[in-house]
């Protein structure tokens, strides 16, 4: 899991910085203030969870088990669904895409829950 989650963390961190710069420089005159804020929310959550994935990758070297793996995969899914739907919503002006965004939020919550349960089960 170390390599896999580190690669995802690096990819999402890299693309998060790029998308943030794209929004700040390339979209600020093309999107409404509301849509720009929505796009930036996607970037914000992507970056936070890229860092969370980095932490999960490091933890996977010390803790094994399904909860750590589930946490990482739920963070990956959350970024793709939550942030991805916000990017598509703003770039295509298709508000119905906002209906799937909460699914990504549930993935984030599930990832944090799995991480918390893994910590709870520690005996040290």
What's the helical proportion of residues?
over 70%
For the record, give the distance between the C-alpha atoms at the N and C termini, rounded to a whole number: 23 Å
Domain count: the total is 1
Question: Gyration radius, to the nearest Å?
Answer: 16 Å
Shape: elongated
| Nearest-integer average pLDDT | 95
The largest pleated sheet is described as:
none
Order of helices and strands: HHHH
Low-pLDDT windows of residues: none
* Continuous helix count: 4
- The computed structural class is mainly alpha
The proportion of residues in beta strands is under 5%
Number of distinct beta strands: 0
InterPro entries: DUF423
Pfam families: DUF423
Family: Belongs to the UPF0382 family.
Main location: membrane
Descriptive overview:
It is found in: Membrane. The chain crosses the membrane at residues 47-65, 72-90, 96-120. With 124 residues, the protein is mainly alpha-helical. It has one domain (2-120). Helices cover 81% and strands 0% of the residues. The chain is built from 4 helices and no strands. It has helices spanning 2-27, 33-59, 66-92, 101-120. The longest helix has 27 residues, at 33-59.
Key features of this structure:
mainly alpha; transmembrane helix; DUF423; 4 helices; membrane; 81% helix
């Amino acid at each position: 899991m170390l390599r896999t989650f580190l690669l995802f963390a690096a990819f999402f961190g890299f693309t998060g910085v790029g998308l943030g710069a794209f929004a700040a420089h390339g979209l600020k005159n093309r999107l409404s203030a509301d849509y720009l804020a929505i796009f930036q929310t996607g970037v914000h959550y992507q970056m936070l969870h890229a860092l969370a994935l980095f932490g999960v990758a490091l933890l996977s070297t010390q803790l094994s088990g399904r909860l750590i793996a589930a946490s990482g995969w739920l963070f990956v899914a959350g970024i793709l669904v939550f942030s991805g739907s916000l990017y598509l919503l703003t770039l295509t002006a298709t508000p119905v895409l906002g209906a799937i965004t909460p699914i990504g939020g549930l993935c984030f919550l599930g990832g944090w829950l799995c991480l918390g349960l893994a910590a709870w089960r520690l005996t040290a």
